Amino acid sequence: MEKENNYIEYTFKVVPIDPASDILIAELGEVLFESFLETEDGVLAYIRKEDWSAGILNDLSILENDNFKITYDFKEIEQENWNATWEQNFNPIQVDERCVVRAPFHEKPVVEYDIVIEPKMSFGTGHHETTHMMLQHILNTDFKGKRVLDMGSGTGVLAILAAKREARTVDAIDIDNWCYLNALENVERNDCNHINVYEGDVNLLKEKQYDLIIANINRNILLGDIPEYSKCLEVGGTLFLSGFYSEDLSTITSKCEEHNLKFVSNLNRNNWIAAVYRKC
For S-adenosyl-L-methionine, which residues are the binding ones (predicted)? Predict the structure, then answer.
């Protein structure tokens, strides 16, 4: 008798890896793939066998895009081997020798900030350049006593570090139900009781006020939401934006300037940007 909850593992090799890997992950998520791990040359993606079919990749437009070369193979993984497979491929990351983001099965490190994340199919483990840079920004900013918003919170990793940095309150918002549920689990796992997790979008920001706003999403959503961020950010407050490329920085900055948000600085990691703005 076949075991329940077996997984199908796809190994994708992607050229060029940016931005193709992000697009690929987004499209795979729409056809019920649950978990993703970015590798040096592509992506590992997992789907429950009960949700899989032989033609599941037929409607992925990125596979037909001549700008990218994507090859893949796949195999079945039995449920009893799933944790071992996850452990083998998900390595902890260290940020500025002060913060480690790890899974529950990793050994507890001796660092200032130890964050335990079970990512499932949510985004934000610290492996991606944008999450890594946002963690750096949080480490280098005074969060003590501040009211914080983490917009597009994914796993909740940025909200968790903000809370550990002594933010007074943190609201973590994501439009995706899976991210919402996953963030709830990770917040509890890290004993961050003053993080409020919500499922929704910028409509939840009405009548809210924050001292710091973190938004690691993507270029188009940021451009649409920047006016709302400005409305609920206190004068003198700080806005951290990421999820876009260096060539988009001028466009993002122009939109911010339209709404009294002055560019302060940015980090750049493999052409990804994490920028800082201040409300004036």
Answer: 131, 152, 174, 216
pLDDT digits (tens, 9 = 90+) for 176-220: 887 899 899 999 999 999 999 999 999 999 999 999 999 998 888
Q: Tokens in use for 152?
A: 């597009």
Q: Is 152 annotated as ligand-binding?
A: yes
Q: Tell me which residue range forms the domain holding 248.
A: 91-279
pLDDT in tens, 86-121: 666 678 889 999 999 998 888 999 999 999 998 665
Instruction: Count the domains in the chain.
Output: 2
Domain boundary among 40, 66, 87: 87
Looking at the structure, tell me whether residues 106 and 65 fall in a common domain.
no
196 is in an annotated binding site: no
| Whether residue 193 sits in one domain with residue 151 | yes
Note the pLDDT of residue 106: 87
Whether residue 113 is found in the same domain as residue 235: yes
Q: Is 200 known to sit in a ligand binding site?
A: no
251 annotated ligand-binding residue: no
